[in-house]
Protein 1
Amino acid sequence: MKAKRLVKLFAVIFAIALTAAACGGGDSTATSTSECGSDLAVAKGDSVTDLSVALVAPSAKDDVAFTQSMVDSLTRLGIEPQITDGTFVVEEAAAAIRGYAEDGVNIIIAHGTQYGGSLAEIAPDFPETSFIWGTASDNQGLDNVFAYFPEADQGGYVNGVIAASLSDNIGLVGPVEAGDAVAYIEGFIKGAEANGASTSAVYTGSFSDVALATTTAQAHADNGVGVLTGTSQSAVGAVNVATANDIPWFGTQSNTEAWSSDLTVASQVYHWDVVLADMITKIESGTLGGEAMALTLENGGLVMEFNGCYDLSADAKSAAEAAIADIIAGEIATK
Amino acid sequence: MENAPLLQMPLLEMHGITKSFPGVLANDNVSFDVHAGEVHTLLGENGAGKSTLMKILFGLYKPDSGEIRLRGEVASITSPTSAIEQRVGMVHQHFMLVPTLTVAENVALGLPSNRGFRTDLDAVSERITEISDQYGLAVDPGIEIWKLSVGERQRVEIIKALYRDAELLVLDEPTAVLTPQEVDDLFVILRQMTADGTGIIFISHKLHEVLELSDRITVLRNGKVTGDTTPAETDRQQLAEMMVGREVKLAPDKPHVDLGLARLQLRSVSVKGDRGTIAVDDVSLDVHAGEIVGIAGVSGNGQRELAETIAGLRPAEAGSSVMIDDIDLTKANPAQSRAAGLSYVPEERMKDGAVGEFDITENLLLIDHGDAKFRKGPLFDFAKIREHSQRLVDQFSVKTPSLDTPTSSLSGGNIQKLIMARELDSRPSVILAAQPTRGVDIGAAEYIHSQLIEQRSIGVAIVMISEDLDEILGLADRIAVMFEGRIVDVVDRSVATREALGLAMAGG
Amino acid sequence: MSQFFTVSVLLATLATAIRFAVPYLLAALGETIGQRSGVLNLGVDGIMLLGGFGAYYTVLETQSHLAGIGVGIAVGLFMGIVYAYVTVFLHAEQGISGIGIFLFGLGFSDLLFQELVGTPKPIKPLPTLDKLPGVGGIFEPLIDIPVVGELLFDHNLLTYFALLLVPFVTWLLMKTTFGMNVRAVGENPQAADSLGVSVAKTRFIAILIGSSLAGLAGATLSLQLAIFQHNLTNGLGFIAVALVYFGAWQPRWVLAGALLYGLVTATRIRWQSLDIIPQSASDIAAMAPAIITILALVLLASRVRGPAALTKPFSRH
């Protein structure tokens, strides 16, 4: 029994190492550079667990943003979860979560802050089941709930540093002032302004309104910004504007090269697998929850992915590397 | 002149028309004809078969047997459109006009345009003006219908038919909504049309109008022709009996009652209408025990608002005073008015008087449901309640299959009797009855009238609002005429004449 | 603040407002015709999503905008047939049927998108006048006209089509026999029926025109944005329905509402991007377009009541 767990632990560590290696080329685990023109598909890792896993997520599983980043992370861990995606409606998500629990699924990932209330109701009814919930910075005091959250301001800061090297006028397209979106936008602003760029951030008020995101990006473009960034699934509209106006773009959550292969400079990518692997190890050893874990540059949960197709100056890149090192060392406050 | 056209072939012949619906023989071997240049009246109670016969004429129903001939030829009328094409027109009781469209647009609707896809309203307006001039149907073709008075709207309906070259025109209860003066104007127009050779089917239940206008009269009862006569050969009494099938008291006997004290006192009552403008303007009126005061007037002159204020449903303006038996009800709610002895029979009986989906018992209990005599502890005593309902239904001869029948499935007359039963059972000191017999058949109307007279003789003060001058003249002891929110005239029945009242109703 | 009032920013804002308003305008004009005939279609948003996806996918596959627009209209037409059949011939309750159409459109467009496309892929943007293949050269000098050139001529053809549709719909409703029939059946279907106007046929055609325009509106949205995404409309179709009400069922007021909505939205975004509206007020600013548009139309548009027979199924008794 113990031997088996040990094997699994090795497998997890191996998987993480593999992931890091696959991302390859970077000087640290916190960065990677894609090969230009390469397929962005995530390679499936070796399975780290025999436990059954289910995922409930608000947007589509290939949204090039929040939900896809989780699916990709699970893929890296060799896990093929049962998926209920597109559950913007919390009631539907709650029904799905409860359904999976009743079906005896061991680990249920509720990938949406808005599911917290439902989870507080459901989790106590299924003490044998482990729930993984995020993004959230506390587990609501529930023993069988793990919470996770990205320190999105860290990657935002790094993106901001690079962006400032490209332009001194930067436009940001935010969705709603909440969660990792606001952390990313504010970290970005800090990083950019610390390096002498001026920024303008507009929150559209919607995670999904592509037309508003487009209009906002267009307004920034008309104002003459030299860099655009944005977050949420609606950001696809802003990326289009960036492409049409030949403005460099910075991504977050997932690698946005899928949207804009030429103009995406770098993306902060969430590697939930780092904390998931940690959690799964704990679950297998009998701890079903009771903790919140952060994705950081330090633990490899946040990875800065540079676009091999974008010709970024060595100076800019080394500035980014320096910023990452400083953040990890705690010498730069990104919040 | 009058006999000449009759010698020719009839414009319309309906021979042996029979039409049955499940459980009802709506038309039983009815024959009916109209000649060019005559007014042939179709008289009968609700449900006598008049509208079935007219729907057959307009192709909305197919008769089980019988045939229709137009100008001597067997006619196949399959729809209102085909009736129009065969030059048969109809003026519906509820006008078939589109309020937001202009007169010309309403007239042109459904007809091909000279200009194809585009409308050609100038040409239509020109033709309308010609027709208006010919018959004195003055109306502006460019004006929207909603800006027109009821009388003008009716003219548009007639123009619509004439524009389509109608030779035969059906007028369904055309005088129901008109002032006496407008009725006179209408009759002038109709006579001119008959003089030009139009045949007219006139549907009405106002007997004096029927006698005034008709060349011939056919009476229907229970789907059968029960009378075929001319004004010269008959009178109101006989027509009414042909309609009802038994002896009828058109003018109820009113025993002498000594007038008591004023039970309902209105002093300077002013009320705002739905639009916020003054609808009732400084009305003062006393109604005494043992007296029926009739409030005459064309609807929309403040009667409804006045009634609602008396019933506690609509607030009066400052300075007004409403009293029943010296209890000040100016600011009362409906419950307080009822407690003071008011019974209210509202104008819109299905909207304000009864709940359609409720059964008979429930509607009879609407007011008294809190009464201790219908309760067993906190619960209803259903045995008592049914007993109470049965007694009222019997006493007021409400015709209903059972006490559990939804009220909306009863006839208008029976619903009205049901409401009267409920209202009079509370032993009121003042009865306020608005349009108590509108849309009610003669038999039920007669019964309702007799009940009001009985209440009068036991000392109840009664206010009866009615647009029907026959009803007012038949029942009231005094008559108040309302025009534009004011009481413009109060006369004793003994000196009232139809003409003088009609003039007052029109503000003259 | 001063930065906003530079001519170029003002003009760019106006141009954005117009572009933004076009899908609203198309959908609302279509809905105006339908509602004038007495049929409320709450499914506009769903039809837009399906039309928008159809157009997007067609362009993705064929590179032809014309084909995409055609597919968008065709999808709208088809959904219109479904909706008209259910409401006109089966006398279904319009509110619920419309919600059904919306939910179907929302779900089915997403399903098709996930199955056929998956990750949003940009398509080539709609060409503005000067970039039209073949004839673009004619318009190029026009765009260089100082001040108004870009405002008036730097749009795609659908924008001009939508604007021309305003007088056309007014003409259709007010000056043609079809329009007269539409108004009549929306106001008093019994009267129209008594004169031989087919209520069913008139409403059927009105719904088809309306839903075709909704399909076109969806196509315009996805082609203008050059992308498709789950719930791309984000409730746009419902705002279009509201614009019809607040525009008092008159095309010119519907246009005013759509432009105002677009203008307030564009201005709000501009002001935020120029920090004229502080970050702290962004939530309130996000509500501004809806509130200002509704208030303005309530105050300005003549308060005509709606078609009397709106939402009422018609059948002869």
Note: Residues 23-232 of chain C form one domain.
Protein 2
Amino acid sequence: MTDDMQEIISDFVTEAEESLDRIDPLFVELETNGEDKEILNDIFRCVHTLKGAAGFLGFQQVVDVAHTSENILKKLREGDIALSKRVVDVILRSVDTLRVLIGHVKHGENAIENIAPLLAELDAALAEASGNAGNGGSRPPAAAGAVPKAVPSEAPKAPPAKTSPENVPGTPPAPGSSAVSPAPVAAAPAAPAVHEADKAAPERKDAVSNLRVDIGRIDKVMDLTGEVVLARNRLLNLIAAISAQYGDDPAVANVMETVSFLDLVTSDLQLSVMKMRMQALQKVFGKFPRVVRDLASAIGKEVDLKITGEETEVDRSVIEHIGDPLVHIIRNAIDHGLEPPEARKAKGKPERGVISIDASQKGNQIVIEISDDGKGIDLDRVKRKAVDRGLLSAEEAERMTEDAAINLIFQAGFSTMDVATELSGRGVGMDVVKTSVAKLSGFVEVRTRKDEGTTFRVNIPLTLAIIQALMVRTAGVQYAVPLSLIEEIVRVSPEEIDMAGGRRVFVLRERVLPYFELSELLGKGPPPKDAVRYAVVVAVGDSRFCLSVDKLLGEEEVVIKPLDGLETESSHTLGSTITGDGKVVLILDLASVSRSLTGTKRP
Amino acid sequence: MATLDYKEKILIVDDFVTMRRIVKNLLKQLGYENITEAEDGAQAFAKLKGGGFGFVVSDWNMPNLDGLGLIQKVRSDPELKSLPFLMVTAEAEKEKVIEAIKAGVSNYVVKPFTAEILKEKIEKIFEKLGK
């Protein structure tokens, strides 16, 4: 029974979080589109159901907050009070509080929040709103007054328990005086129900074919699939060796056939498991309208938010970790990117700024772009600030390319605002964005134009667990290089390497590419003179460079095993893997390599 | 005492998964095992039409077709019109209960309730049927 209870509570947390996540965007929609019965009904239902379940499970604080907000929502739904900023603000605050409370439940904490001020605020907002809507007086005033007062103490009781069955058909348990009012009340929810009925068919089908599975189980399947992939790789290697030796034996041919079938099935299995873990970005993007609304209204800017591509699916670990960095970029765009309305007017721009968010899948990458039509990043100012902060010398700043200058904003301890505003502030800078995205093996690019705006482009690999890799050897050690970021590979003889601006470059089809030795980068010293080199041309975002190695060993699908306790950023590794022939090999993190090579500071 | 047979197929209707689990759990505590779920009135009605159900526990507030809509449809259906139907309501809906009773629910229970209360409600419904 306790196990059952545990499961119910964990279901409750998931469902409650989902319900609460739905409320924010619904409210923003309400504010922009005006009052809409259906939306209000939807919001009401979320809170109402949450309260019901919380009551069963004994989460009294959740019941209290949900119940008090429900009172307001009910009045809103029935048109007794009008939607005002105060009402919306206080309900959104209740939603936030509910999130905190659900968070306590989730982590099994017995923490008690001080919800009294919020409850008072909710009641006050209701009282104020009811006062304003004095002409909505068709409703019996007694009911309006009685409901909020009855709130916190009575909710958990189960009064009708004593009602005898004989009582039921004749006398209603509620005050008989209200017998007039139920009819219009009940009519409201019933009406939409009818015309929604035709929409119901596809949704219903969805619901039946969906299955909630504990995430731990999926992760386990994912892990095991990784092991299968590794075993398959080994098997492919072994069978290649065996067939080279005993190719004529029909038994070997049979094994070959079976192994290649296994190979195919394993790839399909891997893909299917990957898809199982994918979720639409909607889950993350759904929070943004609220973020933009709160922030814009707090600092007096007018902002329109355009979201596209929210149906793009990504791995669930991306869903979990991409929210914060994106919110930070959005905050930054509203706070620093967009000009105040007067300034925009003066420049001949519309007073309302626009933030656009777009997600799409490009090959093996998910690309999320956050653009504003603000003033753009002032690179001279960025450089000056970086020099002031001692992040680089004036001379370095002078020589610096535009790209490198933009990248300064990602350096720890950098902020162009002299006074950290309350909003983007929170004591973190864009460097946190960079590190969080890097943890997902992704990278951020920035494009900016004076007075036209800035675009932050976040690139994240589709899956974090299994990648195609090129195996290389340099200074006697084998490394795996993610194939998705490799453009091409060229054989280079030493005399083809030129010098430009004190750096080695390689000219490939009239394009000058910075040229680096992987062995030097990893602190293993230069390769022997006159040795033949293979230049791996890497493209990370807009920057391209050559990484030179001793030997190419071929392609392999590798399963990334995270390395605990290794500082991945400075070691330039994503993790390790086990190769087909059973060796442990480090996987290079090209995004981190690129940052250290093209940035101003060497590692 | 007349009560719901333990072998009878029961339908729980609620749009919130947790609520369905809670009700299911309570029914199991009372010894009922043959339980099916539906997540709104429309889905529930389709399942009921499939036949074989001996009892319905339905929430009121649901998308697509709410509990009231469901009981109205059930009562006007010749095959289902005498199906025992327990409506789960919230306290806020108390004033509307008369509506549900007019529509023909066999009884109603207010959230939150315990297994004992549920048992009592079921017994009352079946006592009355037995008469």
Note: Residues 133-208, 416-427 of chain A have pLDDT under 50 and may be disordered.
Protein 3
Amino acid sequence: MSRALKSREALLGLAIMLLIGLIATRFPDFVAPSNLANVFNDTAALIILALAQMVVILTKCIDLSIAATLALCGMVAAMLDVAGVPMAVIVPLAMALGACLGAVNGLLVWKLQIPPIVVTLGTMTIYRGIIFLISGGKWINDQEMSPLFKSLPRMEFLWLPVLSWCAVAVVAIFAVLVGRTPLGRSFFAVGGNAHAAVYTGINVGRTQFAAFVISGALAGLVGYLWVARYAVAYVDIANGFELDVVAACVIGGVSIAGGVGSVGGAVLGALFLGVIKNALPVIGISPFWQMAISGTAIILAIAVNATEGRSRGRVILKSAEHVA
Amino acid sequence: MQASPSDRPVLRLSGISKSFPGVRALSGVSLALYPGEVTALIGENGAGKSTMVKILTGIYQPDAGTIEVDGQVTAFPTAAAEATAGVTAIHQETVLFDELSVAENIFLGHAPRGRFGLIDKAAMVAQARALLARIGANLDPTITLKDLGIANKHLVAIARALSIDARVVVMDEPTAALSYKEIEELYELVERLKAEGKAILFISHKFDEIFRIADRWTVFRDGELVGAGMMNAVDEAQLVQMMVGRPVDQIFPKRQHSLGAPVLTVAGYCHPTEFQDINFTLHMGEILGFYGLVGAGRSEFMQALFGITRPSKGACRIDDRIAVIRSTAQAIAHGIVYVPEDRGRQGAVKGLPIYQNVTLPSLGRTSRHGFLRLAREFALARQYTERLDLRAAALDQDVGLLSGGNQQKVVIAKWLATRPRVIILDEPTKGIDIGSKAAVHAFMAELAAEGLAVIMVSSEIPEVLGMSDRVIVMREGRMVAEFGKAAMSPEALVRAAAGIGERAAA
């Protein structure tokens, strides 16, 4: 992408380093490799969902139902486990269910042209409601889940747990998907200029549909990981998490107006929130400050975006074309 | 040629000049508007009419010239002071607020105030009702504007003009989007405004209505004043002559045209509302011009041909095989590409670098096993941008940073990279400077020489005459005339497009 974005990612990376450095001056334990690995592991779900949300936002949509999809798929995964379904089936099924839930969002946006924010606000409530219906409002807890179901995300190989490796794999896949496939390119084209995209033979609605399906499938994956990691499934898991996910995207430079964003930015945005969330209890600051800090970070990120856009200006002078 | 004024003009502009980078929009033109009279402003697209309206309404400030109100030299209006200067404009697509009520639209910015400086809604509605009655409009002032048709929106705009006590009313092609009956009602309204002593500037391409309602005429051509006078001392032929009659000062590329085999045959294309019964055959190496007034249905037809909308009837054959085009992707696969008129909205994707814009419709060719090959993308982009002599520092530069002319080149490069058989260019030189225009024309000739079939939609007569091998004229959604190279003349095109005289034969 453009140089401005690259420098923007560097800036965010620097901010995270600075933050970690600052914490390290008073709490050296925080920067121990094992603790940093813990922070990463704790942020893995946010990273995966931020990338999923990013492709949706790139196409000028938004998926507010992402956390509800996560919760529904997590509940279904837990119920399948209780019913004795093998793990090799549960995870693909959770992702397939997520993809279907995403497809519902996508079809409503594509075929009925309903604004995405309205669609996903509606399905967000519906999906939570379905969890209540299928679970009868009851929790599925630790004792009911099979040992393998719970331990899979925690299994370590090559120094990191499976949960972290999932995030790494998703980042790698997205780097290729977004940067190196025609679908990835059409996400940018559709969000950047939908009219122009139509003229180049891109089906705008179908591209948005694809983004919602990807988002749903990943929410399904995280649904299993989440329920297994915390060893509990109930109606309200990950309640409000969709806002953290959108926040990670915005901090990472993904433009809500569509067409602008990068994998690196979204990952760094998620890490930034992850570091703050994990550091504040260490420093002994109330978790309420966390909200204020992430709120400030969002506004700062948008302010940086706005000034970048403004400083460019129009190139009117012929001689300035080469300079630009 | 200046006619001696029968009385003092309410508004007189003299020696007005206005330049934009690369374009001289107006040079030393004058315009006088008289109370109780309709002055028709006539000219081709690009003659400077719109620039004049924008100066009158304070959107542009002229580089030179003076403005006199009642014989007193005053400052040029600014947009904010437009209302106080007493000039108000009614545009083709009226600029009002859809979500506000009729009364609120009429009084926005100068609503009657009641106690505590709050808007007195009852008084506002009552006054609005009185104003609407004055222009004979039977409208409920409390209705929301979006529920009204265009004709009624014009009425609201006119009521607004009366509410600010405007002395000059500018009507910029007010009938372009109206039905026959609505047009008649508008004429009646113009008569009422005349009776109230308003000075009216009426811009139109339709000669029948100019002769019906105007008292005076002023003709602009290429940003200069050609003449002005009384309507009763002039006829259609003279006006058309003044409007288009110019020495051919633009040089168009000379072409040895030898037409090849037929590429595209369109038979009986119809659309329920936009166009009807379009038939033609396009040959390799041919440049086919589509001329007509704005709103004649040319772009709408092209969009159907390109698969953006679907025709209700009709068939399209490519190389004598039926081609089913239901999406733009299919049109591109059949070798048809469309370079749209509105580059900003429909052309370049700002935010994406140049090379990614060029390869956007060709991603299938630049990828292998579903993965994009950056080297191939760059090679393809370089090949076509170099061919168009694109001035840009690097291919990974954001398209949004390029000038209009260069953005146009990126858009054209994007289409050429798909290796099309038929290329549709919609107003290819609109809004670009003369140097870039010549380059686009030379390039079109080159494409045709290579055997590409070119359809050029253009509202600029010199361009149509200079470039086309054949011209189809559309009016009100139908093909009304077709001219071969020998039969083309500016007068014939204007007459056919404006509906003067009989249907012309090829």
Note: Chain B touches chain A through 43 residues (CB under 8 Å).
